[in-house]
Amino acid sequence: MAKEEHIENFAELLEQSFAKGKLSQGSVITGRVVRLENEFAIVDVGLKSEGRISRREFTMDGSADPRIGDEIDVYVERMEDKNGEIVLSRERALREALWIELEKSHQKNEQVVGQITQRVKGGFTVSVKGIVAFLPGSQLDIRPIRDIDHLMYIDQPFIIVKMDRPRGNIVVSRRAILEQSANHGQRAELLETLEEGHKVTGIVKNITDYGAFIDLGGIDGLLHVTDLSWRRVDHPSDILTIGSKIEAVVTRYNKETGRVSLGLKQLQNDPWHGVAENFKVGEKVKGKVTNIADFGAFVEIASGLEGLIYYTELTWTKKNVHPSKILNVGDEVETLVLDIDTEKRRISLGLKQCSDNPWEIFAKNHPVGTEIEGAVRSITEFGLFVGVGDTIDGMVHKDDISWEKSGDEAIAEFKKGDSVKAVIREVDVERGRVSLSMKHLEKDPFESTAREVKKGAVVTCTVTALQEGGIDVVTSTGAQGFIRKADLSRDRGEQRVDRFAEGEKIDAIVLNVDKNSRKVILSIKARELEEEKKAIAEYGGTGSGASLGDILGAAMRDADLDVKGKK
Description:
The protein is 19% helix and 37% strand. The chain has 11 helices and 30 strands.
């Protein structure tokens, strides 16, 4: 029924309709709802047949669902359809009434209220009481306007300049309103005298998220949100109200386009004047948190003067934490001035600098070599993080967990919450890191087992495993060793892993003691070559005429005689 309140004197319309003669197609008449059937209301208009109207036509304008006995105004679309029923429309009846109302406004040259809803070819569409009208581009304003965002979707007056009911066309003008304005002379005068830096007075006409439009007397000026106040403003409506009268400064004026930019904060003292004298780097200042972003928190340290606490300057111990986890808007905090850039109008503040650095305290109380005990707080692919203080974690790299096991094997044995012991290897105060080691709680067993193994010495080993590329062995001192496949024999045909068996004892020469791999590298081939070299030196040379077999045979006989002699 909301739209029906705007329709003037439907009874008068009915009288005009019947006065013309009999009921005809295209007339507006009054009917009565006699029954409701599913999605339709059956309406009696006093003829031999009844008409049906979709119940959606009753609710689409916010009216209530029809009830039996309601008297409603309907539009006769057809006197009879294929079923012999009269075709009625309540929506068309309302529309016809609106057209009559608009026609009266047009005849009297009265203003109508509408909203510019869309840009179309040659102009714009305007919604006037639900009826779409056309606003030519030339009728938008007295002078060309490129940006009309501030004119969209707001109620404003128009004059109807043309109506064509058969075609359903309505043409309106906004320019006519401006030309009729009593302030038109004032507007022309204002255009002549307007200059940047001048103070002007106006009325707040519209408020948006990015600012407010001020009516200066036929000219709209934009007051951007950043020019409202020196302090942070969340929304222009926090400071301005529509219809209020304000004084502002013209910050920019383009005479060609007629665009005017205004400033409110320019009427106040700039808080940046005297910043260098009032604030010093290294001094502590108090302020209130005004805004929190992903990258830090803004703190107002004087009226309209803000500094930024970058997220890395919030806390000594928590890394990559969101500022909202540390501070809240409205918190009163004490900060340290880290930097002042007057050209960029930026002040950098630090929150953590106003408290003792826990890393320095920890380093002082826990020198390298100190044994600690703590719970595993988290486990990553590269190590364990162990709590060594209320807010400090130390890391045990996976390679520093065990002397004997690989890093992946060692780290797999722990879970979050396990209590472990470790020794401090390094404290990096600048980077906020504590390096721990669990394996350094005891001496490296490899050092003791490999201490007696000297490079070039022949040692007896026991085969512990056969690998594709060689064999694993253990020396008599307990040191782990490895013999590559190429070092299994001086004879290529004998360089086979399958010649050996686990538990077999062999002699080999120590090539190297590799502390990185924690293994002794040995060679049977080198031992055989060394024995051959000694045999040639002792039993024959290249000019003796003796073959290598003779030399080795003689050496073996001498060795056999030595054994028998000892017996």
